[in-house]
Amino acid sequence: MFKRKLIFVLSFVLLLLVPTICTAQFYFGKNKVQYTNFDWQVMETEHFQIYFYIEEEEIAQIAADIAEDFYPTLAARFKHEIYRKIPLIIYSSPNYFTQTNVTWSMLPESVAGFTEFLKGRVVVPFHGSYHDFAHVIRHEMVHVFQIAKLQSVMSLSLQQRMASPPLWFIEGQAEYWSTVWDSEADAIIKDMVLSGNLYTLENIYQISGSFFMYKLGQSICQFINDTYGSEKLILIYENWWKERSFNKIIELTLGEPIKEISKKWQYFLQKKYFPEIAEAGLAKREARQLTKKGYALKGVPVQFKNGENTEDWIVFKANKMGYSGIYMMSPSG
User: How far is it, in rounded angstroms, from Cα 194 to Cα 243?
Assistant: First the structure.
């Protein structure tokens, strides 16, 4: 049974997408209670302000090292620098984390970190795993750069209206650049492919916000990187001001409509997880249709010698003249 804790979500980058936050995020009849009075300290590094309380100073130092080590990587990938110090608020346990007043909403147990949009604050608790702790910090740092990059591009272009980025792209890219493709992610995608339940880019919204969406988004971003070029994931941001919808931005950047990109991504996964497809391929993806009218079937490739030359032909059964017959045509059409 899949019981993986979501360790990356509640990114307030979503405030880019909607003008108001739904009041349904409140739990009816409950208030957020702060049981603990924290004596906050501030640790400043080159790019960060680390907020912590004295009991967790060691964890705060680890967080500072992780964040500073990852900053140059993201600055290079996004081709962007953040000149203000990024606020990074650390809690030593999930229980303390749920008391945070950075957001007024109640934090469910599945949330283990978020990036707040208005002031660009990153809030991360320590869950006991240093590996996951580093992953969450890197993931949320990607969100910080995503917000800063979009703000910069739209400001330089003097555009006031901005296309809304879909959650699968925002979270998928954050996953792709913050962690490796591991056996857990592979098992999730493989199960979807083999069971015939793989979502397309057109209907992935149906699982928006779920852990499955994160891994599908990671897979899609990796596919874009490997198929269209590593520079495309950033060129998408550079082209953001040129179109009014995300689908159009993708088409402008990658040169193909998002529906075709979705088909190619699905076919790539089918070839990866179905050995027979990987070896032979699917006709609708690998072949070119030669006949357009009536029925034509049982095509057989043959070769004829014409003097010193050898010609390729296709022999097939069809009903071109109103009754079945045997025909032949060149593979070139």
Answer: 36
Instruction: Say how far apart CA 246 and CA 200 lie, in whole Å.
Output: 16
CB atoms within 10 A of CB 189: 19
Question: Would you state the pLDDT for residue 217?
Answer: 96
Distance CA 101, CA 124 (A): 13
Residue pLDDT, tens place only, 67-113? 999 999 999 999 999 999 999 999 998 888 888 878 877 777 777 78
Structure pTM?
0.77
Chain centroid to CA 123: how far? Answer: 21
Helices (H), the chain: 57-78, 94-97, 130-156, 167-176, 183-195, 211-228, 232-238, 246-254, 258-273, 275-280, 283-286
How many distinct structural domains can be found in the chain? 3
The two beta strands, 309-318 and 325-329, are antiparallel
Do residues 286 and 276 lie in contact, with contact meaning Cβ atoms separated by under 8 Å?
no
- Residue 28 domain-assigned (yes or no): no
Which of 111, 140, 156 marks a domain boundary?
A: 156
Give the amino acid at 223. F
Structural domain for 319, as ranges: 296-329
The residue whose two tokens read 């620098």 is 81
Q: What is the DSSP-derived secondary structure letter of residue 313?
A: E
